[in-house]
# Entry
Amino acid sequence: MTFLSSYDLWAALPESLLALTALLLLIADGARRGQAGGVTLPGISVAGLLASAVAAMSLWGQGGTVFGGLVFDDGFASFFSILFAVIGILTILFSPHYLRVRGMRLGEYYALLLLAIFGMTVMVKAASLLVLFLGLETMSVALYVLAGLQRSDAKSAEAGMKYLVLGAFSSGFLLYGIALLYTVVGSIGYEDIALYLAAGNRLSPLLVAGIGLLLVGFAFKCAAVPFHFWSPDVYDGAPATITAFMSTGPKAAAFVALIRVFGVTLASASSLWITAITWLAILTMTVGNVVALRQTSVKRMLAYSSIAHAGYLLVGIVAGTKVAFVGMGYYLAAYALMNLGAFAVIILLNRRSDSGYALDDLKGMGFAHPVLGIAMAVFMLSLTGVPPTAGFFGKLYVFSAAIQQGHIALAIVGLLNSAVAAYYYLRVIVFLYMARPEGDPMVSQPPIYRAALIVCSLLILLVGIFPEQLLSVLTLAVP
# Structure
């Protein structure tokens, strides 16, 4: 029987604050009795996320586990708990304007966001495949509802249903893989599995099948080709703020779990999976970028772009070194800022009632709205990987780690794909500054919304110009 110490409970403070805030949001929404507007729910949400981030910072782990070895208490988990809180805060700051424009008075929106972040933090702290699965499902169930939350929109309802069906399908693969690993190893703890493989035990067919099923499950969650087919439609149909959130936070949580499971726990059996992930990376980069070239909707283009970035991050898993994992952490933090910012800009600039987010909506808006234009240009340049933005250094660190491990061809494929991506990212800047605006160029710009965009763009530049601080933090945190 496992007894919990006071430190075990204290270590769970960030997650406890998230859960309590979600409950408080439901109570506060009920107390409003359907009244629209107000800053109560966003204010409570931001306060809860700030409290969780402060708790994670104050409890910055020194390594090891809590709850009887089921949960990590290390700097890696603390770093991403803070990052998830930042992603949540930015999403919430961008949400009231969007919900008001779309006519969505949904108090549960904020509670579901908090519960999704709760699941993400459990995923990155998991030291057992069972805890990982629980965190994954908590996050996923909240996201299924959020994707289909715009009930008056058929595309949103389709996105929620498609995400539910295919998400459950991928969870089945993951759960079956966990069961097979337990059959062979007799445990689903990361440390026990790593020790079993390091001891040189025979790699039985059941073990190989279990690892393969785990990889398929993770590939679904990361939207890696050929398991990506749910991603564009779900991203396109979901409310835009939720699309921005889904393409950053849950993706980061999935890659942190991938680092812990494949990069660390299953590292001794890398001969079984490294070729498969190499081809996944190549296909994901290439398909994501090639299909993104054909898109006329900025929202759908960013959806396929998100797939391509998953391919770049998989290069770090193939490299499999601490340097690569540090680079992935840096990349995930930078990507969160630039992708959230890009979605936030197109939400403001979209002037069509059918939520098409067409490229034509951006014509001439760079001059009509200088703050939005400059911010969007920074986000696009960073997504392209142009120095001195954070996006450039994210790719540099990941590809350099791959080259150091001898994966030169994979790094070259990544660089070529980055060159392809430059076309559709820079095309956005062309529309912003080299075309005449169509129709009324006026758009509503709430002050707090503009402030959040400015902060995002400045952070991208600062983290790119001065990367050493973030890299030093990650170097100490990465397992």
Summary: Residues 348 and 445 are 7 Å apart (CA to CA). The longest helix spans residues 154-185. The mean pLDDT is 87. Strands lie at 65-66, 71-72.
